[in-house]
Amino acid sequence: MQADILGPDFRVETISLPPDPEGPVVATLVTLAPEHPNGRAVLHVHGFADYFFHTEYARWWADRGYAFYALDLRKYGRSLRDHQTPHYVADLGEYFAEIDLAWWRITQRDGHRDVIASGHSTGGLTVPLWAKERRPAELTAMVLNSPWFDMQGAAWLRSPATRLAIERLGTSRPMQEIPRRISNVYGRSLHHEHAGEWDYDLAWKPLDSRPIYVGWLRAVRRGHALLHAGLDIDSPTLVLSSARSWFGEQTEETAATHDIVLDVEQIRRWASSVGTHVTSIAVEGAIHDVVLSRPAVRAQAYDVLGTWLEAWVEKVPEPATGDGS
């Protein structure tokens, strides 16, 4: 491993994957070691048109003794190569390969037996789908930050006819781009050169997002269907979201105080489909990526995360009394 672009305390390694029709494929694992390790770890997976740059989030975990790992999935961020279509996969299950290899490094190579899986947006859908498929013994809990649990927008977008059309077009013309109006208000509300406070690479996380392809959307909708059928994961899961969405005229203020990407009512509706032990918390004033909200709001989010962690993950069982009571 070598020093990452985030600084010398962040280390990075490239994970080679089998080639796909576009050519060679890699993923990238970024690591932050805690000063006082507790033997536990976190693996984080980013969202759509995104990559890992969340140093504050990583340090929050490291300050609690967790070794922090973050994946840049294939065709995203550090893993994107010139010959590739950014973010494109035909099945979310394709990501399981790099999650598997990252998990092996965390649990077998580095010896962590208690690991929390973390995911944001599309990553918040991919992570529980992977957990459902793999059932790793080391999975202690999950933290899902504004997970993409359903298709937002008008009801017809979720109709059987639309689902069938996406399925058919995704099979026959997977690389057909879906026309859509793209606003850069959300990106501008985040980036430090505009109205935000975060420094990240605009080539890897563009202000204008990325194109959407029918084959990729088919993969996401198949993932939604699996989630809606129920994943039956028994690990404690925290679902964080904003208290409100906003889909009217977008301004920097609405973008800084609402989720303007996903419908938070859908997130809360489907949260219980993840498993048998789910805590869903709406954070007032939060944005789509909750941990990038304004300072006071994300401080509240970290308080929620800490309280949940202490109550359901780090809680030490009371010793047996020995008298049968």
Globally, the shape reads globular
Helix content: 25-40%
Number of domains: 1
How many beta strands in the DSSP annotation? 9
Q: Could you list the spans in which at least 5 consecutive residues all have pLDDT below 50?
A: none
Q: Give the termini separation.
A: 52 Å
Structural class: alpha/beta
What would you say about this model in short?
This is Alpha/beta hydrolase. By secondary structure, the protein is an alpha/beta fold.
Record keyword descriptors for this entry.
alpha/beta, Rossmann fold, hydrolase, nine-stranded mixed β-sheet, 325 residues
Question: Mind explaining what this structure looks like?
Answer:
This is Alpha/beta hydrolase. It comes from Nocardioides cavernae. InterPro entries: AB_hydrolase_fold (IPR029058), Hydrolase_4 (IPR022742), MAG_DAG_Lipase (IPR051044). Helix 4 (160-172) packs across helix 6. 31% of the residues lie in helices and 20% in strands. The chain has a nine-stranded mixed beta sheet, sandwiched between helices. By secondary structure, it is of the alpha/beta class.
What's the SSE blueprint?
Blueprint: E1 2-4, E2 7-20, E3 23-32, E4 40-45, H1 55-63, E5 67-72, H2 96-109, E6 114-120, H3 122-134, E7 139-145, H4 160-172, H5 185-190, H6 214-229, E8 237-242, H7 252-255, H8 264-270, E9 278-283, H9 295-312
Parallel strand pairs: 4-5, 4-6, 6-7, 7-8, 8-9
Antiparallel strand pairs: 1-2, 2-3, 3-5
Helix pairs in contact: 3-6, 4-6
